[in-house]
């Protein structure tokens, strides 16, 4: 199922990437500076948007997704190093990164609280944490639908939880949330945070 999902991911995302979705992703990723950690780079959709950075260290636990990113790494104007590892157990030293980027990934991380601990540990005091995520909608009927679909959706879409409340998890993490911007009726959010150190 993982292999099938990685093959279909870019096809499914293509119509969204050509619309407002692409603009949201690009505007967020272009805020990255210095040395960057990207959590769950998937097929490398963000790589072309890195402009004012020294380098990007990008992790992805799914080797099938990584295969699809190779062309985008070659086309990137930024030096990108990739690693097959999980966000809950990063191999980087403390205080390594100026910016951390995660787009459409916290829905799949098995232990998001642990991943956020690792992000805090490996990012410098004052580092930017930039996220673009889909979340559980604060509307009763839509939220119930997300809950009902999540068990099947997880199996089909590489562990993706439609009903994850990532904003709540971030509020509990100790990161400072500076800006939250909702899109598509609150189904998607960009979240800009700071690591207080």
UniProtKB/TrEMBL annotation:
The lineage of its organism: Bacteria, Bacillati, Bacillota, Bacilli, Bacillales. CDD domains: AdoMet_MTases (cd02440). GO terms for molecular function: S-adenosylmethionine-dependent methyltransferase activity. Residues 37-130 form the Methyltransferase type domain. PANTHER family: METHYLTRANSFERASE LIKE 7A (PTHR45036:SF1), METHYLTRANSFERASE LIKE 7B (PTHR45036). SUPFAM superfamilies: S-adenosyl-L-methionine-dependent methyltransferases (SSF53335). This is Methyltransferase type 11. It comes from the Bacteria. Keywords: Methyltransferase, Transferase. It comes from Planococcus donghaensis. One of its GO terms (biological process) is methylation. InterPro entries: Methyltransf_11, SAM-dependent_MTases_sf, Thiol_S-MT. The keyword Zinc-finger does not apply. The keyword Repeat does not apply.
């Amino acid at each position: 199922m993982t292999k099938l999902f990685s093959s279909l991911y870019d096809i499914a995302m293509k119509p969204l990437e050509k619309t407002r979705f692409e603009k949201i992703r690009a505007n967020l990723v272009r805020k990255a500076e210095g040395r960057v950690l990207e959590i769950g780079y998937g097929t490398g959709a963000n790589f072309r948007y890195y402009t004012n950075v020294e380098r990007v260290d990008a992790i992805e636990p799914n080797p099938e997704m990584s295969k699809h990113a190779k062309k985008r790494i070659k086309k990137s104007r930024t030096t990108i190093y990739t690693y097959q590892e999980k966000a809950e157990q990063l191999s980087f030293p403390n205080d390594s990164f100026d910016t951390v980027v995660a787009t459409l990934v916290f829905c799949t991380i098995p232990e998001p609280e642990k991943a956020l601990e690792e992000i805090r540990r490996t990012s410098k005091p004052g580092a930017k944490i930039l996220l673009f995520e889909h979340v559980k909608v604060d509307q009763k009927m839509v939220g119930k639908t997300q809950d009902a679909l999540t068990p099947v959706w997880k199996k089909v879409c590489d562990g993706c939880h439609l009903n994850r409340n990532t904003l709540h998890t971030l509020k509990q993490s100790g990161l400072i949330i500076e800006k939250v911007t909702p899109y598509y009726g609150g189904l998607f959010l960009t979240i800009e945070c700071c690591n207080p150190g």
